[in-house]
Amino acid sequence: MYVKGEGGLPQDDVEAVKWYRLAADQGVEVAQYNLGMKYSLGRGVPKNYIQAYMWLRLAADQEYEKAKWQIYFIEGRMTSEQKEEALNLARNWKSKK
User: Fold this and answer.
1) I need a labelling partner for 54 at 20 to 30 A (CA). Which of 12, 40, 48, 65 fits?
2) Is residue 6 pLDDT above 70, yes or no?
3) What is the residue-averaged pLDDT of the chain?
4) 8-state DSSP, 12
5) Does position 80 have pLDDT exceeding 80, yes or no?
């Protein structure tokens, strides 16, 4: 709702990120995808391809198709070291669940 400013709420990317993060931490793939997109675009959070890739990877691992496509776009902007860091973050996130 905060993404578009619906239901009488103002448009607020920072607030949207807060709610996406809560859902993403619970393993909700669409929230993981949306959080990854926020990081890839720098909306509501600083642009960070490592965080973007991590969240998109988690969503893609749950067969969320949009995430699979976005990963290809982000990979082209990352070094192999950044990609490995993002994959390690995703593995660590999974191991805590």
Assistant:
1) 12
2) no
3) 90
4) -
5) yes
Biggest distance spanned by C-alpha atoms of the chain: 44
19 CB contacts (<8 Å, ≥6 apart)?
A: 2, 31
C-alpha closest to that of 69 among 26, 22, 36 = 36
Distance between CA atoms of residues 68 and 45, nearest Å = 22
Domain residue spans in the chain? 13-96
- CA angle 28-3-68, nearest 5°? 45
Inter-residue contact 15 to 2 (CB < 8 Å): yes
Q: For residue 9, what is the DSSP state?
A: P
User: For 24, what's the count of Cα atoms within 13 Å in the CB-facing half-sphere?
Assistant: 26
Check whether 5 has a pLDDT greater than 50.
no
Q: What is the mean pLDDT of residues 16-32?
A: 96
Quick one: average pLDDT of 44-67? 97
DSSP tag of 31: H
